[in-house]
Amino acid sequence: MEGDIKRLAEMIGECRRAVVFTGAGISTESGIPDFRSPGGLWSRYKPIEFQDFVASEDARRESWRIKFSFDETMANAQPNRGHRAVANLVRRGIVSHVVTQNVDGLHQRSGVPDEQVIELHGNSTYAKCLSCGQQHNLAPIKDDFMRDETLPVCDCGGLVKTATISFGQSMPEDEMLRAEQATKDCDLFLAVGSSLVVYPAAGFPVMAKRNHANLVIITRDPTDLDSAADLVLHREIGDVLGGAVGVN
Ligand code: ZN
Fold this sequence. Notes:
CATH class of the largest domain: Alpha Beta
Number of domains: 2
CATH topology of the largest domain: Rossmann fold
Number of strands: 9
Bound molecules: zinc ion
Shape: elongated
Oligomer: single chain
Low-confidence stretches: none
Radius of gyration: 19 Å
Largest sheet: 6 strands, parallel
Strand order of the largest sheet: 3-2-1-7-8-9
């Protein structure tokens, strides 16, 4: 095992309880483009602000058009070696929670139980009523929309939107609290594939460090928090995690 991966394996072996925090980088290795990067979704489309979605039928149509134009890439994406390594650590009881900025559901599909995934930006694999919170499957919504751009309406009359947190929508309170608690309870915090610039999410590694946890950052590009970390690996996530955990 190479030096820095070996060091990571040791830190994992020595910790009492770890938290994994993931961003777009772990899923780009599954072929899901980083929305915020140059060439990503939000450089091609103007993001629909939450207030506009609620106020305007045109904005809702545009939002579903974008969603379904991007759907195939999402549907074809499979969990990769990085996701599998994280799932392995959860199964072994080493990682208590996976806190993620991703909305692709790949942690759950790799075998991490729902209750151990904390989704800070929601989930794009299903929809939710904005009034009553009822979950809705995307398949029938897509059929209706592709036919004649019929917009989904809940039985309660409420607006239905993908279960993601949009620009202009407040962070989910419950998830933020759970992520905070998990961060405070861990002694090893692995920040994986996040540029660590989007606040408040990026505050968690800082919180972990302040709480005397070891901080490991695994990303392709340098981050502003690198100098605060105990170990930094600027390499492919799948190789690093898979190598350290012993998962292919
Ligand atoms: Zn409803």
